[in-house]
Structure formats: structure tokens, C-alpha cells
Specification:
The chain has 164 residues and is an all-beta fold. Helix content is 0%, strand content 51%. Strands 1, 4, 6, 7, 8, 9 and 11 form a seven-stranded antiparallel sheet that branches. Strand 8 and strand 9 (103-105) form a beta hairpin.
């Protein structure tokens, strides 16, 4: 049967993606009397980088990675990264980022942030030992705590990445 009228129909099209992200940090930092030796993350092989390897997040959001420490020391009114010995001595160290390592990261400060729409990113980050303190310390360890957060125009969610 022939129809002389024009008809239309519509189809809804949706794009549904589950938000997810993956990132890595150095797996271990060992101070010797002269340097900080950094072991590579087993997944990426990178030693001196904080790296986002997958960033699928909602539009207008950012993935932010920050770093703090289980031990800190106040020095001149500034909170510093530290390791404390059983004898109450401290090893003070700094984390610096950027290609020339001139941007020191404060305790709890941002290491990097990645906008939605950018799938991967990394930033150089190096640990610098305050040589004025190394002689006071014996074998002792502490932890850096790395945290990722999604933030933006709508809501916020958090995931804490446990240190290895």
C-alpha cells in the first residue's frame, strides 16, 4: 500500500561511560647519607614522576593529586615533611615538582591536577634531603600519603591511594 504522507520517527542516543581513573607514584624512597634513592613503581617503571595513566572523569571536573606525610616537623612556622626517630631526632626532606624542581610542594599540597578530557598526564617530582639533618637519624621509616580527589562544578568524590 502506498502512503502519500511523510512521517517521522526519532531514536534517543546516549553515551554512557563509567568514570574511572588510574595513577601511580614511586613505590619507595630510601635516604642514604648523600641522596634519596627512589624505587620505580612496578606498574609504570617511573621513579621521579607522579603519573595519571587513565583519566575518564565527568566534564568540568578535575583529578587532583596531593601529598602529605604521617610525620611532619614545624620549622620556622612552616610544616615540613619529616621522619622521626625513636630518639626524637628528625630527618627533614622536601618534595619539589616541575622540570627544574623549583616548585616545592607543601605538606598536603597539590602535586598535579588533570582536567576532564585529558586522558593521561605526569609531572616530575623529586625528593630532596635536607643535609643538615641526615647525621641525626638512624634507620627509621615513615610514609608519604598520596590522595586523589575529583572536584569541579558538581559534587566531589574522594579516593585515597594507599602507599605501597
Amino acid at each position: 500500500m502506498k502512503n502519500n504522507r511523510t512521517t517521522t520517527a526519532s531514536t534517543n542516543v546516549e553515551y554512557v561511560v563509567t568514570a574511572s581513573y588510574e595513577w601511580s607514584v614511586p613505590s619507595k624512597i630510601t635516604f642514604t647519607d648523600t641522596i634519596a634513592e627512589v624505587e620505580a613503581n612496578a606498574d609504570t617503571g617511573d621513579t621521579q614522576k607522579v603519573k595519571v595513566t587513565k583519566n575518564i572523569i565527568p566534564n568540568k571536573k578535575k583529578l587532583q593529586i596531593t601529598v602529605s606525610s604521617t610525620t611532619t616537623k614545624e620549622e620556622g612556622g612552616v610544616t615540613k615533611f619529616a621522619i622521626k626517630t625513636d630518639e626524637d631526632a628528625y630527618l627533614i626532606y622536601a618534595i619539589k615538582k616541575g622540570t627544574t624542581y623549583d616548585d616545592e610542594i607543601a605538606v598536603g599540597g597539590e602535586v598535579m591536577s588533570v582536567d576532564s578530557g585529558k586522558y593521561a598526564a605526569d609531572t616530575p617530582a623529586e625528593v630532596f634531603l635536607d643535609k643538615g639533618y641526615w647525621y641525626k637519624c638512624v634507620r627509621k621509616s615513615g610514609q608519604l600519603l598520596w590522595r586523589s580527589s575529583l572536584y569541579g562544578t558538581v559534587g566531589c568524590c574522594h579516593l585515597t591511594h594507599p602507599p605501597t
